[in-house]
Amino acid sequence: MKKSKYSFIDFALPLYIVFAPYTLFGRPVFSLYILFIYSAIVILLNKNIKIYLHKNLFYFVLFFTVISTASILRRTSTLQIGDINTFLNPWVVFLIIGVTCTDVHRDKFYRVYTVIGIVAMITMYIQSIGLFVFNIPAVPIRLLPVQAEDAHFWGNFEGARPSAFFTEPQAYASYMLPLLVFAINKRKYLFSLLIAVSIFLSTSSMGILLVGIIFVVFIFQTEKWHYKFISIVVLGLLVIVFLFLPVFQMAVDKIFTTDFFGTNIRLTTGFFIYSTFDMPDLILGIGAGRQESYVENNLSYIPWIEHLINTDRVHLLGFSTAVSRILISAGVIPCVLFFTMFFNMFKQEEKTLIMLLVVIIISSFATTMLFNAWFLFYYLIFFACSDKDKSSDKYFIIKY
Question: What percent of the chain has pLDDT over 70?
């Protein structure tokens, strides 16, 4: 039997996230549209291929883009070039996932992903030793030159928290979490432990909490008691190490002092902004890309917002998590479809993917993972690993 070769996407997917933050002459070095062009080449040059378009994801994208665009027209009656790009971007992401999900070879992708993950993990350990032992600032390593307008993405932590060659600690954690899911399900416990500790070293609150949740989900999923026992021991060791080693004190303090229900920029600001809408906007949203201008025009009387407007951190007014951004941009209907999609996925997928799905759902409440590089990374991994023939009724299948 002839062995399948590595595909372009087997390499591109794990590398895409690493190089996505970089721009050259104002344009991304590794753009979403490179993957779109590759998808077009796959369609044009290959025969007898199948394109799997997930039905629930299609309905979510359809209602999100249509309602969001209608909401913009409802308020301004005109569309700008940026609005057209905002409308097209979800469809580009959707089509890339549909075309390339069959081009990802699960084992080969895992090997490439593992190599890059190990390099990132070694870098994280070296940075952490330098920071916590020798007090050397753990400044993010820039693999390519960074444009001046993008420098603020890289300097926010001033080396106080290690992040390897990612822009911030949370980006490192988000990159390593799917690898942790794969490693645990392959029963690679030592590798899993090393990944988990490296995420702890990043001090990313979301990453640390998701590590614990991943192990707990695996403990409940696995039917063999010796695997349950090993997982409980590993999780217990992680908890002990995390709580009692001084090196993790910063991470412990960060988790216990995080304002999960107040005006935390990452977690709750988007929901707070949505709560200020009038009834039509609560139902239909205000349109994608309109959050920052809405806040400046309608909420500038609030002290902490007024403070941000008068600083170089004004861009944070446009920050919202995936779930709150759906509500702000397009209202209730796309949000219901978003969670309906997850509900249907839970009913049909294998255990490995359920664990990854839990990570995606929680991340949707804590990160900006919506039609961006992280969305493509996570959802493409999910659909590439899904048994599409077994659940073919969940897809629009286009044959060429």
Answer: 90
Contact 33, 26 (CB under 8 A): no
Long-range Cβ contacts of 225-234 (<8 Å, 24+ apart): 227/187, 230/189, 231/184, 231/189, 234/189, 234/192, 234/193, 234/196
Q: Are 163 and 172 in contact (CB under 8 A)?
A: yes
381 is a domain residue: no
* 298 pLDDT higher than 50: yes
248: pLDDT strictly greater than 70: yes
What pLDDT, on the 0 to 100 scale, is given for residue 4?
A: 64
Distance between CA 195 and CA 169 in Å, rounded? 14
Q: What is the pLDDT of residues 191-215, one digit of tens each?
A: 999 999 999 999 888 999 999 999 8
User: Beta partners for 52?
Assistant: 397
For 85-139, how does the pLDDT look when each residue is reduced to its tens digit (9 = 90+)? 889 999 999 999 999 998 898 899 999 999 999 999 999 999 999 998 888 888 8
183 is a domain residue: yes
Q: Which two tokens stand for residue 383?
A: 């659909």
Please indicate, yes or no, if residue 111 is contained in any of the structural domains. Answer: yes
Q: Using CA atoms, how far apart are residues 145 and 153, in angstroms rounded to an integer?
A: 13
pLDDT at 276: 94
Give the count of domains, the chain.
1
Question: Is the backbone of residue 214 left (phi > 0), alpha (psi -120 to 50) or beta?
Answer: alpha
Residue 182 resides in a domain? yes
- The pLDDT assigned to 119 comes to 97
Distance CA 393, CA 89 (A): 26
Q: Give the up-direction half-sphere exposure of residue 29: CA atoms within 13 A in the CB hemisphere.
A: 17
Q: Token pair for residue 132?
A: 């916590």
Residue 156 has pLDDT above 90, yes or no: no
Q: Which domain holds residue 112?
A: 106-257
